[in-house]
Every structure is written in structure tokens, then in C-alpha cells.
Amino acid sequence: MDTVNIHEAKTHLSRLVERAAKGEAFIIAKAGKPMVKVVPLDAADVRPVKRIGFMLGQVRVPDDFDSMAGDAIEALFSGRS
Prior knowledge:
By secondary structure, the protein is α+β, with helices and mostly antiparallel strands. The chain contains four helices and three strands; from the N terminus they run βααββαα. The longest helix has 9 residues, at 13-21.
């Protein structure tokens, strides 16, 4: 990744923006100290897609899941705790 100083960035802003738009990220530095990183807008949208069912076969739901602790839950709602 290239690093350019502020003066060079001001002088060649159009060229640098074109490079960033094509996917080339770069850093702008002031007195040799990195200040900002310039990346294309599309780079922010690139995220891995979360998959549903990625743990298929690794997790087991009990057959009585819907009725588990049904008596205790019913007692809490009816005030018989």
C-alpha cells in the first residue's frame, strides 16, 4: 500500500481518487506520520455473507423442545410459582 504526503495528495488528488476508485487503497501522511487511509467505497460493502444452517449436523434440538419446562413456565404465568 502506497503512502503519500499531504502536499503530493493535494497536487495529484484527481489521479489518487481514480486509483482508489479502481481498488488501490493508499495512506495520506503528514510529516511522515500516517493520518488517513483512503479506500474505495465499494470496499466497505464487501462483507462475508452469513450463512443459515452452517452448523447443520453439529447441534441437536431435543424432540420435547417445545414442551421443556412447560409446567414451570405455566406456574410462573399463572402465579403459582
